[in-house]
Specification:
Blueprint lengths: L2 H6 L2 E3 L2 E3 L16 E7 L31 E3 L2 E3 L14 H8 L3 E8 L5 H10 L9 H10 L6 E3 L14 E3 L2 H11 L15 H21 L3 H28 L7 H4 L2 H18 L5 E6 L8 H26 L5 E7 L2 E2 L11 E2 L1 E8 L8 E4 L26 H12 L5 H4 L14
Parallel strand pairs: 3-9, 3-10, 6-14, 7-8, 7-9
Antiparallel strand pairs: 1-2, 4-5, 6-13, 10-13, 11-12
Helix pairs in contact: 2-10, 5-7, 7-9, 9-10
């Protein structure tokens, strides 16, 4: 039984944990990976502007994109879009920069039909696998199964549908006020969370700790049942471990890296990088397994090219720098990054030169060959950007096959995480879909 389940079944009486017939499980050790970083492009990205290229002349009106089909590029097995014509000579980070650097560890999945043009439903589908059912996010599910007994199993930069937990695991928000609360828990004797000033001197604090330890020892000595003694001792060990992990996390926040000069000059990319730094500090403390961070601004209903492409380049530049930093920290080979959005943009421009909501979208997953083979594209869309059906066994295009949906994607992600057969997952949050060999 997990410690959090034990805690639900106990009551506190005079500082004593009464466990009845319940036996407390051994405390979970520090988590060492794989770490999962989920990076949301909030608002609905346009895959035809990067990983599912089309080009002019396609779409119902022949204007799906403002670049020529002949300008579409390819590295390895991955085709990608060039900049729109208006950015041909831009100094912005580019799709070429991203895909040439990372294609060998990248799986691109195109043609996922979210079946909605609602932001709320789209985010829910993208990050839980379900459009209608009240399921937790994939980050919460993985954290619950792999690190649920730790101090910071899941960290997130927002409390939206993309990181919802349904109460199965604690979620720690990465924002300033929330992080300050963590600092106070980790170092309760500090008078200021950003300084080393203390409420009590070292000598006074030592006396307080000694008195608390003596009180706990008296409580242990008064017990006559071995299972209660073991439960109290295990509770103390877990508590001490969690405090140590929180202190490592806080210390990690003070030693974060700096982004490269390009990302530092782009506020959105810099914010994404900074959020990843907090996530990495949580990973390195051994107290967290998953993190959900986001960049907004993708809901471009007007002036699509001029607004959407710079945001997309900030997103990819931020991730490029995040990957470089993870490798420098030595956790790159234990990191899986999932990139997704609410849905896609339409296969035509509207009267305001914008693009509206479109259900047929994409997901990209980056990781080490320890977990899956990269340089792969799964699925696709036709010339009007509608999902193409796939053979369930081979993933080849097949008009009689299956259509990729969020359920299929999340069955594959659960399988990649090794939790698809866990009873707590299959019983409480089932999917009827088979596991497609997307990451096989």
């Amino acid at each position: 039984m997990k410690r959090r389940d034990f805690m639900r079944m106990t009551v506190t009486a005079g500082g004593m944990l009464l466990c009845g017939g319940t036996r407390l499980a051994m405390a979970q050790q520090a988590y060492s990976g794989p770490y999962w970083l989920f990076i949301e492009a909030d608002g609905g990205w346009d895959p035809t502007s990067f990983c599912d290229p089309k080009g002019s002349g396609l779409g119902p009106n022949g204007d799906i994109n403002n670049y020529d089909q002949g300008d579409i590029r390819q590295i390895g097995n991955i085709r990608y879009a060039p900049p729109p014509d208006s950015f041909a000579s831009s100094t912005l980070f580019s799709n070429q920069d991203f895909f040439e650097a990372h294609y060998q560890r990248l799986v691109v999945v195109n043609g996922i039909n979210h079946g909605t043009n609602s932001h709320q439903v789209g985010r829910t589908a993208s990050w839980t696998g379900s459009r209608a059912l009240d399921y937790p996010s994939i980050g919460a599910l993985i954290a619950s199964e792999n690190a649920g007994d730790l101090a910071l199993p899941m960290v997130a930069s927002s409390s939206s549908e993309s990181s919802k937990t349904n109460g199965i695991v604690p979620r720690t928000l990465l924002n300033g006020g929330d992080l300050n609360a963590v600092r106070e828990i980790a170092f309760p004797n500090r008078s200021n969370v950003f300084q080393t000033g203390q409420y009590h001197s070292d000598g006074a604090r030592l006396l307080i700790d000694q008195a608390a330890s003596a009180r706990r020892q008296r409580q242990l000595n008064e017990q006559r049942l071995q299972r209660l003694t073991d439960a109290l001792a295990e509770h103390d060990a877990a508590r001490n471990r969690d405090v140590a992990a929180l202190r490592d996390f806080v210390d990690g926040l003070n030693g974060t890296s700096n982004p490269n000069s390009y990302v530092d000059s782009r506020s959105r990319a810099r914010s994404l990088f900074d959020a990843a730094q907090t996530a990495f500090a949580a990973f390195e403390s051994g107290a967290a397994a998953t993190a959900q961070i986001r960049m907004g601004g993708f809901d471009t209903h007007n002036d699509h090219d001029n607004r959407h492409y710079p945001r997309l380049m900030d997103y990819l530049a931020g991730i490029d720098n995040i990957i470089s930093d993870a490798n420098q920290r030595g956790i790159g080979d234990r990191l899986i990054i999932v990139m997704a959005s609410d849905f896609a943009r339409t296969n035509r421009y509207n009267n305001d030169n914008g693009k509206d909501h479109w259900a047929h979208t994409s997901m990209m997953v980056w990781g080490s060959s320890t977990y899956f083979d990269g340089d792969r594209v799964v699925g696709g869309t036709d010339d009007v950007q509608r999902s193409r059906r796939l053979n369930a066994a081979t993933l080849a295009f097949d008009d009689n096959g299956v259509e990729l949906t969020p359920e299929y994607m999340h069955q594959a992600l659960r399988s990649l995480a090794g939790i698809d057969q866990n009873p707590g997952v299959t019983s409480n949050f089932p999917f009827a879909q088979q596991v497609l060999p997307i990451f096989a």
